[in-house]
Amino acid sequence: MDWLERLNRLPGRIALPREAGGGTGSLGGAVDIAHWAHSLHLPDNVPHRHAYFEVCRVGARGQGQYRVEGTPHEIGPGDLFFSRPGVLHQIVNAGPPLMELFWVTFHLQFPAESPGDDAMTAFFRRFAGASETLVASDTGGSVRAAWDALYATASETSAPLGGPIFAAQANALILALLIALAAAGGGAESVTLPPETTPDADEKAGQRAVQFIHDNLGRPLPVPEIAARVGLSPRHLTRLVIRFTGVPPAVYIETARIQRARTLLLRTDDPIKQVGTLVGYEDVHHFTRVFSRTVGCPPGVFRRTRGSAAAPVKRGSEIQTPGTLI
């Protein structure tokens, strides 16, 4: 069993620690890890979107472009780049050698926003909202150091798989890595869109709407409420979400709910009813029907087979459509 498989078999929820005695009116946030991955030579991919966060680090070789909404940004060894939910992006190599990439995908869970947010939750909220941070340098090497330490720990064969010592050590390193990534992804060392290409008001509203959806997947999300939150009419919001994510609001919300449910089923021991509640389905039967229709198997089967019973992802012309939500 390699290091990636060991990491991907860990429970995926990382609770964000609160300062001693700190914060009132908040339960603190959490990060739900969806997947760890590494490619020695990543080929070019097509323009696509995710319903989760993805952070990549270019390894020791290769260079190319990270294209966001069609705008290219140069990347090379050691660079970090950030894909936020709903944002169209693509990775293109400059030529051989193909880029080595390390990446992690995750969901952020926040309590209801309040003045009582603890420092760590507020820190990750700032990262989630830093939509103009696209590429950053690993200043000081803290990201590489944390990733290398995690690799070394997960590569150790002496620690029993799933043992409490390995899990505790790995989770501490994962938290350190997430903090380093969030600092780079919301800090002053980032490369942001130049003034002439700064997102217009509609694009910013689209980004705020998508972020609001992801912050509130555990409750009903009627379009009028989302529209009021970002200061738009429901009709304008619908047009904007289609423009920004490629699909209508209801489709995007359902996709985001089921994507998070898949992560929770694979990476936590939460009962299926609780998973449904966490992603906005109070009725477990309704959750099971929607999940089965979308994924191709019921939640319990998906969990027991570690996702192998899911319907195969369609390839070919559909996945080549620019803006496909995957």
Kindly describe this structure.
By secondary structure, the chain is of the alpha+beta class. The protein has 2 domains: 190 residues, Jelly Rolls (Sandwich); 125 residues, Homeodomain-like (Arc Repressor Mutant, subunit A). It is built from 12 helices and 12 strands. The strands form 3 sheets. It has a 7-stranded antiparallel β-sheet, sandwiched between helices. A 3-stranded antiparallel β-sheet has the order 6-5-8, with no helix packed on it. Strands 3-12 form a two-stranded parallel sheet. It is globular and about 45 Å long. The two termini are 27 Å apart. The C terminus is likely disordered.
Indicate the CATH architecture of the largest domain: Sandwich
**Could you report the average pLDDT, rounded to the nearest whole number?**
82
| Structure annotation, total helices | 12
Give the strand order of the largest sheet, numbering strands 1, 2, ... along the chain: 1-2-9-4-7-10-11
Oligomer description: single chain
Helices and strands, in order, run as HEEEEEEEEEHEHHEHHHHHHHHE
Main beta-sheet annotation: 7 strands, antiparallel
> Any idea how many domains?
2
- Unreliable segments (pLDDT under 50, ≥5 consecutive)? 21-26, 187-198, 313-326
Distance between the termini: 27 Å
**What is the CATH C-level name of the largest domain?**
Mainly Beta
Report the β-strand fraction as a percent range. Answer: 15-25%
Helix content: 40-55%
